[in-house]
C-alpha cells in the first residue's frame, strides 16, 4: 500500500509518496506524470520517511546540498532505474546532457530514450532530473515545468549563462 503526504515548497505544493518504508514519489502538484507510480488508493499518513524527506527538502530549499538521502524505492523498468541512478551522481549545481547519459550505456543509445526515462522520474528534486539539459544548451524536458527547472538550477547556483529556453515548436 502507498501513502501520501504534502510539503509546501517555495515553488509550490509537493506531494510525497511512500510504500511505508521508503520514498516512492515526489511530485510538484499537478506536474506531468503526477503520481503515475502509485499502486492504487493512497491515504494520507505521517511516516518517518516523510519526515526525513521534508528535512532533506528544507535543507535543499536553503540552497545547500543535503548530506543525506531519504531511503528510496524507485519504481520503473530496469533501464529507467539505471538512468535514475546516473541522475543521482550529478553533483549539486552542475548539469549533464541527455547525450552524456546515453553514452554511459552504449554508443548506440539514443538521447531520446534517456529523455523518456528522465521525464518519468518519480522522485523529482531528490533524484535531480532538473540537472539534465539538451546538448545544444537548451533548458528543456522538466515534468514540473521549465520555470521550476530554472528556479531549481538558480537555487543551486548553477552557471546558466550558456543555456536558453527553446521557443515553442522548436525541434531539438
Q: Helicity range of the residues?
A: 25-40%
Q: Using the coordinates shown, work out and report the CATH topology of the largest domain.
A: Arc Repressor Mutant, subunit A
Total strands: the figure is: 5
Q: How many individual domains?
A: 2
Instruction: Please give the largest β-sheet.
Output: 3 strands, antiparallel
Task: Explain the overall architecture.
This protein has 5 helices and 5 strands; from the N terminus they run βββααβααβα. The protein is α+β, with helices and mostly antiparallel strands. The chain folds into 2 domains: 3-60; 78-155, Winged helix-like DNA-binding domain superfamily/Winged helix DNA-binding domain (Arc Repressor Mutant, subunit A), CATH 1.10.10.10. The strands form 2 sheets. The protein has a 3-stranded antiparallel β-sheet, with helices on one face. It has a two-stranded parallel ribbon with strand order 4-5. Strand 2 and strand 3 form a beta hairpin. It is globular. The termini are far apart.
What's the short version?
With 172 residues, the chain is α+β, with helices and mostly antiparallel strands. 28% of the residues lie in helices and 14% in strands.
Task: From the structure above, extract its key features.
two-stranded parallel sheet; alpha+beta; single chain; Arc Repressor Mutant, subunit A; 172 residues; 2 domains; globular; three-stranded antiparallel beta sheet
Mind sketching the topology for me?
Elements: E1 3-9, E2 12-18, E3 23-28, H1 48-60, H2 78-87, E4 96-97, H3 98-103, H4 111-119, E5 132-133, H5 146-155
Parallel strand pairs: 4-5
Antiparallel strand pairs: 1-2, 2-3
Amino acid at each position: 500500500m502507498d501513502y501520501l503526504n504534502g510539503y509546501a515548497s517555495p515553488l509550490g505544493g509537493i506531494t510525497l509518496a511512500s510504500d511505508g518504508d521508503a520514498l516512492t514519489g515526489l511530485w510538484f502538484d499537478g506536474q506531468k506524470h503526477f503520481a503515475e507510480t502509485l499502486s492504487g488508493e493512497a491515504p494520507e499518513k505521517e511516516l518517518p520517511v516523510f519526515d526525513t524527506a521534508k528535512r532533506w527538502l528544507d535543507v535543499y530549499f536553503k540552497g545547500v546540498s543535503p548530506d543525506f538521502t531519504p531511503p528510496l524505492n524507485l519504481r520503473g523498468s530496469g533501464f529507467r532505474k539505471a538512468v535514475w541512478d546516473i541522475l543521482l551522481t550529478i553533483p549539486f549545481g552542475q548539469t549533464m546532457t541527455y547525450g552524456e547519459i546515453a553514452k554511459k550505456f552504449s554508443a548506440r543509445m539514443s538521447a531520446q530514450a534517456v529523455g523518456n526515462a528522465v521525464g518519468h522520474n518519480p522522485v523529482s528534486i531528490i533524484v535531480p532530473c532538473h540537472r539534465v539539459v539538451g546538448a545544444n544548451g537548451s533548458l528543456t524536458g522538466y515534468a514540473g515545468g521549465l520555470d521550476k527547472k530554472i528556479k531549481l538550477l538558480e537555487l543551486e547556483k548553477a552557471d546558466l549563462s550558456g543555456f536558453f529556453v527553446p521557443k515553442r515548436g522548436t525541434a531539438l
